[in-house]
């Protein structure tokens, strides 16, 4: 079995412990240890990071293109003769990339990261096609939700049948954008929809996404889409709760006159959600839930610290207290780290 240096250390320590407890014989220990082959360099992780960086560079390149109005106008001018060409070219590219990606998935399953990169290019091409469709069909209403909804349907089908977590992530992002755009359009792009500002709406969106994620857990796990769905739901829920703990259900004009006491219930709800997440994570041994709960509980506490003590304390005292609290957290984490090392070495 090919393992990294860290994996080899853990496995050998486990084998030694089992031999000491007489769960396995000396011959079993030697036989199992002899099957380990250390990987000198983690090429898999390098491949992963290289493709992630390549995709990030592509995104930056397109962002730079859209920020350069002269270059963008020149490119669009090349296709100004036909709206069909502006839609058809990226659509053909999207079909080619998606077809190529699906072919590689079925024929060459070992090329995981490169296949995901190809599917991402399909996502990018289809997004450009949808953008041009929106430009062609624009009637001045400002309703862009149908475009995001069309993108979410497309990415959802491709991500599900292609078992692509990356494309499925874009499905969830498009769905979130469609929800935000539709509720914004229905409210006339005002601050409230059914009495709720945007963060409250996304609290319900994140909670609903998590509920569906766990209801459909067997299906999503089978398609390798459960983890990305759960991360997206938790991220939407907790970021929305964090924003609510700062701004409450107020628009920006009324927020400046809002007392901290009026925002306290939202901060308590944020803390309660973090505590529930930690509790469920501990009960079910779900490390993701634990980490989300602990991380956002810490964010909540430090947000309240800045909120309540920034004006009331001298800045010297403020930052000394902040430094001391961070040092205590670091020391506690260090103790846990050393305790784990000692347990593994015994």
From TrEMBL:
Q: Which residues cross the membrane?
A: 49-66, 72-98, 118-137, 143-161, 166-186, 198-219, 231-250, 262-282, 289-306, 312-333
The molecule here is called DUF2157 domain-containing protein
- Asked whether the UniProt record includes Transcription regulation among its keywords, one would answer no
Keywords of this protein's UniProt record, alphabetized?
Answer: Membrane, Transmembrane, Transmembrane helix
Asked if the record carries the keyword Heme, the reply is: no
């Amino acid at each position: 079995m090919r393992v990294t240096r860290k994996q080899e250390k853990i496995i050998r320590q486990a084998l030694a412990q089992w031999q000491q407890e007489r769960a396995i014989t000396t011959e079993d220990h030697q036989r199992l240890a002899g099957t380990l082959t250390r990987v000198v360099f983690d090429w898999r992780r390098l491949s992963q990071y290289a493709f992630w960086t390549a995709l990030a560079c592509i995104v930056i390149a397109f962002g730079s293109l859209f920020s350069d109005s002269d270059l963008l106008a020149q490119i669009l001018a090349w296709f100004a003769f036909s709206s069909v060409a502006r839609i058809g070219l990226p659509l053909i590219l999207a079909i080619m990339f998606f077809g190529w990606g699906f072919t590689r998935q079925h024929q060459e399953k070992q090329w995981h990261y490169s296949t995901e990169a190809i599917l991402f290019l399909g996502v990018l091409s289809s997004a450009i096609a949808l953008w041009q469709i929106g430009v062609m069909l624009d009637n001045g209403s400002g309703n862009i939700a149908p475009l995001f909804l069309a993108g979410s349907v497309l990415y959802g089908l491709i991500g599900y049948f292609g078992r692509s977590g990356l494309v499925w992530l874009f499905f969830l992002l498009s769905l979130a954008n469609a929800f935000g755009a539709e509720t914004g359009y229905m409210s006339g792009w005002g601050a409230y929809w059914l009495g709720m500002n945007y963060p409250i709406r996304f609290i319900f969106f994140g909670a609903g996404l998590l509920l569906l994620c766990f209801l459909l857990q067997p299906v999503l796990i089978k398609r390798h889409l459960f983890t990305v769905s759960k991360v997206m739901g938790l991220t939407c829920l907790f970021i929305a709760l964090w924003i609510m703990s700062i701004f409450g259900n107020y628009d920006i004009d009324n927020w400046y006159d809002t007392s901290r006491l009026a925002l306290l219930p939202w901060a308590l709800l944020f803390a309660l959600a973090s505590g529930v997440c930690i509790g469920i994570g501990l009960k079910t041994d779900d490390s993701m839930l634990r980490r989300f709960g602990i991380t956002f509980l810490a964010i909540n506490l430090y947000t309240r610290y800045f909120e309540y003590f920034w004006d009331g304390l001298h800045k010297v005292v403020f930052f000394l207290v902040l430094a001391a609290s961070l040092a205590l957290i670091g020391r506690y984490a260090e103790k846990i780290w050393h305790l784990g090392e000692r347990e593994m070495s015994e």
